[in-house]
Design goal:
- It contains 9 helices and 5 strands; from the N terminus they run H-E-H-E-H-E-H-E-H-E-H-H-H-H.
- By secondary structure, it is α/β, with parallel strands linked by helices.
- It folds into 2 domains: about 130 residues, Response regulator (Rossmann fold); about 55 residues, Arc Repressor Mutant, subunit A (Orthogonal Bundle).
- Helix 4 links the parallel strand 3 and strand 4.
Length: about 200
């Protein structure tokens, strides 16, 4: 992969579109690029496997019916070999409920019908990208709490007060009201939050 492409991928969420129909790949690439995603596309299972080996897409949009290896059998293979958490959303214009159930059984998180409703597709993609951000924030908060337990009692209290007050100020945006709510004068609040 080229260095510039690698840099762009780190900054944007990457979506891999796997569909044998050029028009669908092209349309989805244009729309999702305009939405701020970095797009990779593959017209068959071989290309999809190459992209999955070289890149780490956050989401894969996978067509069910493709010549050669179909989307369901590709998904089965990925379930056994995929070493990280990529959300797979299946796409099909001819799929049955059985196809959707089978895809879910092998790791697909959702199923969208063709012709694709773009607002629904965008909502679906966003739904599966948010958990990673929430997990990262939770991990960061957990580390902060663990750090507090390593401190002496007075240091831990001071650090907690600082975090608590900064958070309340950020939400309240009015130190005078906050001062009245928590029973601390503004000077004490400023002393506790100063770096």
């Amino acid at each position: 992969m080229r260095p510039l492409q690698n840099l762009i991928m780190k900054k944007k969420k990457t979506i891999l579109i796997v569909d044998d129909e050029y028009d669908i790949r092209s349309l989805l690439t244009e729309i999702l690029t305009n939405e701020g995603y970095f797009i990779l596309s593959a017209e068959n299972a071989t290309q999809a496997n190459e992209h999955l080996k070289k890149n780490r897409p956050s989401v894969v949009l996978l067509d069910v019916w493709m010549p050669g290896q179909d989307g369901i059998s590709l998904l089965k293979k990925w379930q056994k070999t995929k070493p990280y958490d990529t959300k797979v959303i299946m796409m099909s214009g001819h799929a049955t409920i059985e196809n959707a159930m089978e895809a879910t059984k092998y790791g697909a998180v959702d199923f969208v019908e063709k012709p694709i409703s773009l607002p629904l597709l965008l909502k679906t993609i966003k739904k599966y990208l948010k958990p990673k951000e929430i997990e990262k924030k939770a991990y960061k908060n957990k580390r902060k709490i663990e750090e507090l337990f390593k401190l002496k009692y007075k240091e831990a209290i001071a650090k907690f007060d600082k975090l608590y007050l900064k958070n309340r100020i950020k939400k309240q945006k009015n130190i005078s009201k906050l001062s009245m709510e928590i029973g601390l004068d503004r000077t004490s609040i400023y002393r506790k939050i100063k770096d």
